[in-house]
What does this fold into?
Amino acid sequence: MPRSSDAPSLFDLPLVQRSPPAPEPEPEHQPIQDELAFEIAPEQATGQPAGERLGPHPARFGDHLRAAVADLLLLVAAGLVALLGCELLGVRASAEVLPGLVLFLFACSFLLTIVPLAFWGRTLGMSWAGVEARTPEGLLPSFGQVLRRWLAGLLTLTLAGLPLLVALSGRSVADRLSGTLTRRRG
It folds into this structure.
């Protein structure tokens, strides 16, 4: 089927390397609007809606603690639902079921942390506490940074929350290991 334009369609495969279009020549005179100074709206300056910008202050220890406790309560609720499901299926909760339950909680922890952090920069607990994780440049953390934050969270849980005390200095273990900052939402 012949095409009227050279633009690729939805189903075209990139089989041929196309050269980029030639840049347009600069006009010899500048329009009068370029000489005027315009104030940049906050949305244009940061690339984010005004409500989504980071707050000017880092998260406090109480913010870290509230977010961690809320995320832990969600994980405990998932474990209770799994145990209830076992009972409804007639599987008696015993030591034989424990490895499966631990694996289930591990997977739930991964999904409840990785997905929200990667897409929105905050877990459900962080959202409730009013904080979010960003890179020092203010961008969403990369997948590697999110994975390191999750591993630091597991380390904190494994060590009975003792690494959370590092957050008294302003940055949690998760922030330090992942190279991110937890800030209050503004």
About this structure: The CA atoms of residues 137 and 180 lie 9 Å apart. The helical segments are 42-46, 61-88, 98-120, 124-129, 143-158, 173-178. The chain has a mean pLDDT of 79.
